[in-house]
Amino acid sequence: MTNQNDLFVVKGCCTSKKDVSEKVSLSRDEGRELPVAIIGAGPVGLAAAAHLASRGQSFILLESGKQAGANIKSWGHIRLFSPWRYNIDKAAARLLSANGWVQPQLEALPTGEELVEHYLKPLSRLPEIKPFIHLNTKVLSVGRKDTDKMKTANRENIPFVIHAEENGEYKTYESKAVIDAAGTWGNPNPASSSGIWLAEEQQLKEKIYYGIPDILGSEQQRYRNKRIAVVGGGHSAINALLDLAALKESYPETEILWIMRRNQVEDSYGGEEKDALEARGRLGSRIRQLVDNGQVVAITPFRIQLVKKSETGIELIGSQNGKPGSLEGIDEMIVNTGSRPDFAMINELRTSIDSATESVEALAPLIDPNIHSCGTVRPHGEKELRQPEKNFYIVGSKSYGRAPTFLMATGYEQVRSVAAYLSGDFAAAEKVELDLPETGVCSVNLKSSCDDEPASSCCN
């Protein structure tokens, strides 16, 4: 195996030390330019690649999974509440159509699996994109070449260097710009209302699922005829509750507890029939019916202070309406309290991150769920996404930090603007347009109904 100290980077590629003179010669080739590095081959990362390819810009796309859209595959059984027309990037669609792709019915609602198979996988295999994707490549850190965070002199002219582990081997890549579209999937918030990971909760990981398990499929045996606590007040939690209710029809001893921090359970129903996305509105209406008929027992406001193992199963210790309380005898937990970005790999870059939302700082006033009760955000692009580190951008759900109201269409417009700017088309970068559906519950109010559970917005 080649020693990592014997590796040189040549214009975004990794070479050995076998021929230094050849390496120097290559690095001085006239007209060659470093690529843009994109981190993450999810919907937004692939859209960034499509826009850069459409503009004739070179790029590399680094994905930790074994295929494009790997994170989405883990929730492939879930049907999105936004139709195809909001989930397809325009530049990607043009490239796909030029290669014989048949566009899906735009008003249909895809599952995660369908999104990958009918859109992301074909997009990743296009000749304009496939040669530049590096799968099984985990980015370890991003910085400036031979320059730490403290150094300022000539910083803007120094290339980025990306340290990665590709198929188990250490590699480095150079780039002229970096688009971080790594998302927040796989980095969930804990069940604890304090947001702090405690050892007791971590020790129960075999009994706690963070996300939406395949309750009616591969995970059916795990949940049938069990006492299950679902934690969270957003649409992810509601999806899990609806699946559990369907399971209960066949296994009536299944007991479903819905635990939230909201003052009233009604605050989680959202816009219902007023929601511009019909499927999203139906979620609220269906869960209301299940709560009203007692199939789902809502316990709110309940603030979890400690999750621990007891003789009867899992015990939740906390407070309800300001008084100490506990819930015992829980067999399984499903936690949907949102997720948070991981900034470890960009720690050597100069960034501007909001201290509360952990979003790109300029976006915080637009998306903070302490202020906004919905995800209708004014259009924003390269200008708002700029970081103190020139030509470094955080996009997609990671740009929203802990705020839960991100939609794919927002990310597509973000990367369209960024790609235009990096291509020198500043007018196109500045002209940002975004058409998002209304939730039916939009307001701007410091006392909004989302205040008590910002990690699980009523609008995600």
Describe the protein's architecture and organization:
With 460 residues, the chain is of the alpha/beta class. The chain has 13 helices and 18 strands. The protein has helices at 20-27, 43-54, 70-73, 90-98, 112-124, 199-202, 220-223, 235-250, 278-292, 364-367, 382-385, 408-422, 426-430; strands at 8-10, 13-15, 36-39, 59-62, 133-134, 137-144, 160-166, 169-175, 177-180, 208-210, 227-231, 255-259, 297-299, 302-310, 313-320, 323-330, 332-335, 392-394. Strands 5-4-3-9-18 form a five-stranded parallel sheet, covered by helices on one side. The protein has a five-stranded parallel sheet with strand order 10-17-11-12-13, covered by helices on one side. α2 packs across α4 (90-98), α2 runs parallel beside α12 and α8 crosses α9. The longest helix has 16 residues, at 235-250. The chain is globular, with a radius of gyration of 23 Å.
How is the biggest beta sheet arranged?
5 strands, parallel
Given as residue ranges, the uncertain stretches (5+ residues, pLDDT < 50) are 1-31, 440-460
Spatial strand order of the main sheet = 5-4-3-9-18
Mean pLDDT: 85
Radius of gyration over C-alpha positions, nearest whole angstrom: 23 Å
Query: Could you state the oligomeric state of the chains shown?
Result: single chain
